[in-house]
Amino acid sequence: MWAEAALHQTTDSDPGEQLDTINTIWVLLAAFLVFFMNAGFGMLEAGFCRYKNAANILTKNLLVFSIATLAFWVLGFALMMGDSFLDVIGGLKGLFLLNEQGFSEYKTKITIPLKAAFFFQLVFAGTAATIVSGAVAERIKLKAFLWFSFFLVALSYPITGHWVWAPNGWLKQLGFLDFAGSTVVHAVGGMAALVGAWLLGPRKYLRKEDDKMVSRYKDDGIRVAIRPHNLSMATLGCFILWLGWFGFNGGSLLEADPEQISHILLTTNIAAATAGLTAAFTTSRLERFKNKPELSMIINGVLGGLVSITASSAYVKLSAAAFIGMVAGWLVVFLVGYFNKLKIDDPVGAISVHLGCGIWGTLAVVLSNKDNLPCKQINAPLCNNNGLALIERSQQFGIQVLGLFVVLLFTLAFSWFTWSRLKALIGIRVSDDDELKGLDRQLHGVDAYHGFEKK
User: Fold this and answer.
1) C-alpha distances in angstroms, 444 versus 50, 60, 102, 150, 438?
2) Cβ neighbours of residue 85 under 8 Å, at least 6 residues apart?
3) Which of 99, 120, 163, 377 lies at a C-alpha separation of 20 to 30 Å from 76?
4) Does pTM top 0.85 for this prediction?
5) Is residue 8 included in any domain, yes or no?
6) Which residue has the higher pLDDT, 222 or 244?
7) Terminal alpha carbon distance of the chain
8) pLDDT tens track for 169-211
């Protein structure tokens, strides 16, 4: 009804103003879908972890978006989309959104109000921080996680985001393509998660022989299984995320173009579907999964397909989207096993899904169809008209590799420094006793399943 009222208000105005209103409504609706992805992440992470830590995980997911909101409002948005300084960082005129003149370059590129654009970019920034939550689950101190999330959204994420998405960002000018955030959001969140999980160390279990808490990764290479407590909840989370991704990718167009939005939604859905099917097929052929389609891997396969198509959902043909999803479904299964061999404990598979598939999705941009590229707005090799498709794709691939390298290197260095400082100052891991008894009771004094008894 509010959309209809808004349209009635512009009936007597020129068509351009009406179109701007429609664009704004679409972008805000897409932002609402992306915001709802927080519920999906919460259900997914809580379901994948043990019942004794469910309330802790949901607490983190509630608080991380609150932290992200303040960090992005105070500083992050100004650094990300403020008028560029040396093409590497935004200015400080836009702190607290007090001065819209500090976003003069950005405002020339959008047809929606600046505050609407801020809200849309905010839900993306919150997603990057939420990705970290799953990888460090069941052993991270709440205070340490919230501090890291604040610094990530206030400083690191906006700087690399400026390089890629700001009108004068140096990677954007170079021709680096990342339509909706395979690199900017997912690979960045995945790298921050990887560093955090590595510094935290793996989860522990109580060894009955000597009554000691020890790593779940034994010296002989055997891994003690820690199973999800509620795959029904995790599956619900997957469906919520799948739904939210239509806003994630569709809204990134920042305008309500029916043809382009329809194409984006189709490529997004096809990639997710083929990735889930590929993960199911792959696990059913592996002995370590007892030659059966494994639900947790299918869930992460779907999410891996969604992450992978995020960079190119507006650019590739439907057949290319299917191929991108197929590779992602296999890649997730491989990477989960690979990180376990490295003894990097990721309870939900966030590193494999977001970092691994974020990298693949960024490189897969070279499969783009030139007819779908906004060549009037970008300076990418794929937009050249010399007729030498192989050379154009090779040049684009080189730019994609360079962009990935510098963004991930910066995020790695920032995350290492921040996690290390937090570890030295306040500690980042809970005590063995807290980990054994469960963070719900030890840190929050509640049970996620009050009144239920485990048999």
Assistant:
1) 16, 11, 42, 21, 10
2) 91
3) 377
4) yes
5) no
6) 244
7) 50
8) 999 999 999 999 999 999 999 999 999 999 999 999 998 888 8
